[in-house]
Amino acid sequence: MEPLLEQLERFSEVLAVSRTSHVSTWDSATVRRALQWARYLRHVYRRFGRHERIRTALERRLHSQWRPEGGLGLDSVPGLTNFEALRCSDVLLSLRLLRNRALGDAACYYLLQQLFPGPGVPGGDQVSLQDQLARLARRRSAVHMLRANGYRESPKLQEDPLMKTQAELLLGRLQEVGSAQAESRSRFLGSLWERLPRSNFLKVIAVALLLQPPLAPRPQEELEVGRPQTAGEGSRELVHWLLENSEVMAAFCRNNPAGLLTSVAVRYPALTRVYLALLTDWGRHLRYDLPNGVWVGVETQDVQWAELCDRFQSLCQSSTPLKDEVLTALQALKKQDGDFEAPGLSIWTDLLLAIRSSA
């Protein structure tokens, strides 16, 4: 294990150096050795991708190597930062070298020969570097497209052409990542959450959930590395990610329109339960303003009465099973609160009155 860890650490340093001016001293032989090293580590990824213990050990070494207090002096240009990066280590190295103007002419010429060998040139890899770079370019284009703010004031956001296109791109990227470990898909969604405009990204997720039919949980033995995803699995990955990240789930429910969330709730009972729990929590933060005769939030970030009422009303205008579930929950909360019938004493009573008046 230790020789493998050392190999990984040394290549990670090479990858970091590839973005610096030090590559001006590289010749074609250096580039060749670096690419061979990268392909060896890609083989390591394929061999040990399913071995949790080995993968964890490699990840730990990489994290310790590039922590801020590290002594390599290359913190601004990190090398490998996670095990998943080994899958495309040769692509990462090639991209960094192509972008580095300090790379000498001979080394650059050799690299271009490797990327574009021409017709009839035999290659040892099933997927060429050129193909991998093209795939990476498509992925980056998809991320760029997802950055666009597709939200417009539309009564049916799920029918907006731009939003549907962004949702399809998201599902397509999830399908590509789906051939790797489940944690890779979660890491991919987490990276989008950090990089993209969050309000729009949350709406794209909601629309994506409506584009595919929900699937029943799949047996664990079928969740194997390399198994292709089928239609509908992207929605399951999105639901799983939302449920695993409470902060994201709360933002998902707070930032998406009531009607869109109702459509999602109809199809995904697991999300419905969390949504109802959040609505209940938001309602408990409101206090009755007697002089003005309205429920108000104690803090500025609290949900307003009009929004809370609109969300409950939207849920109760949906299909009968969901409507009955919501009304049953409100009746139970009303009973716990004293089972008052007069308005202004219990927010759950007032919500039930508002729902009945709008029916």
Distance between the termini: 67 Å
Tell me the β content: under 5%
- From the helix content, strand content and strand pairing, which structural class follows? mainly alpha
- In total, how many domains does the architecture comprise? 3
Q: Evaluate the radius of gyration.
A: 26 Å
Task: Round the mean pLDDT to the nearest integer and report it.
Answer: 80
DSSP helical segment count: 16
What is this structure, in a nutshell?
The chain is mostly helical and 359 residues long. Helices cover 63% and strands 2% of the residues.
Structure, described:
- This protein is an all-alpha fold.
- The protein folds into three domains: 106 residues, no CATH class; 84 residues, Serine Threonine Protein Phosphatase 5, Tetratricopeptide repeat (Alpha Horseshoe), CATH 1.25.40.490; 102 residues, Serine Threonine Protein Phosphatase 5, Tetratricopeptide repeat (Alpha Horseshoe).
- The chain contains 16 helices and two strands.
- The chain has a two-stranded antiparallel sheet with strand order 1-2.
- α12 runs parallel beside α14.
- The chain is elongated.
- The termini are far apart.
- About 7% of the residues have low confidence.
- DNA repair protein that may operate in a postreplication repair or a cell cycle checkpoint function. May be implicated in interstrand DNA cross-link repair and in the maintenance of normal chromosome stability.
- One of its GO terms (cellular component) is nucleoplasm.
- Its main location: nucleus.
- Keywords: DNA damage, DNA repair, Nucleus.
- Pfam families: FANCF (PF11107).
